[in-house]
Amino acid sequence: MAKREQTKRGARHWISTALQLVAILLIVLLLRTFVIGTIYVKGSSMEPNFHHGDFLIVNKLETLVSAPERGDVVICALEEGAYGGENIIKRVIGLPGDEIDLRLQEDGTYRTYINAEAQTEPYIAEEMMDGGDISYPFVVPEGCYFVMGDNRNASTDSRRLSIGSIAKEDIMGKVVLRVFPFRSFGLIE
């Protein structure tokens, strides 16, 4: 009888452990799907702020419950036709309804204007040499965002007809934390 009781307790313990593991896996799956994500940076389009190989944490929930703001660094899902349907990291420059103008300056560089106001962009790598192949001024469609890389001279972004403005539903989340390299670990502002 003691052996039988021991077997029952062992079975209950195994079932309890299995249920706990299933609950943990379900919670992790829900968190991964709707709350947090990760991404490795590929390429140099966001230098000097993000580099090839950086490992980042993305807050997916923030873009589900609120709209991205100008200056946010976001992860965008590209359609299958545009560069193979991959995800890109870019900075939000223009909001729905904004008029974006990249004006050629006397020195051959371009300056960003939003709603006819010149922008100060301390995060860019160097002066912009290419305005892209869209027509300016460009009005960002409702429900869409104009995104550009910080390294404007090495970034394929909303300045290109092949990318264009990004629909809100294609913004997968806001970058909130750099995990790797460890020497650069920290929150993204």
Oligomer: single chain
Distance from first to last alpha carbon: 64 Å
Alpha-carbon Rg, integer: 23 Å
Query: What kind of sheet is the major sheet?
Result: 8 strands, antiparallel
What share of the residues lie within helices?
A: 10-25%
Indicate the low-confidence ranges by residue numbers.
none
**Record field, number of beta strands:** 12
Run of helices and strands: HEEHEEEEEEEEEE
Question: How would the global form be characterised?
Answer: elongated
Structural class: alpha+beta
Mean pLDDT level: 88
* Beta-strand content estimate: 25-35%
Please work out how many helical segments DSSP would assign: 2
Question: Can you describe this structure?
Answer:
This protein has 2 helices and 12 strands, in the order αββαββββββββββ. It is elongated and about 90 Å long. The model has no long low-confidence stretch (mean pLDDT 88). Strand 6 (110-114) and strand 7 (117-118) form a beta hairpin. It has helices at residues 2-34, 60-65, and strands spanning 36-40, 55-59, 73-77, 87-94, 99-104, 110-114, 117-118, 138-139, 144-148, 166-167, 171-180, 186-187. Helix content is 21%, strand content 30%.
How are the secondary structure elements laid out?
Layout: H1 2-34, E1 36-40, E2 55-59, H2 60-65, E3 73-77, E4 87-94, E5 99-104, E6 110-114, E7 117-118, E8 138-139, E9 144-148, E10 166-167, E11 171-180, E12 186-187
Antiparallel strand pairs: 1-2, 2-11, 3-4, 3-11, 4-9, 5-6, 5-8, 6-7, 9-10, 11-12
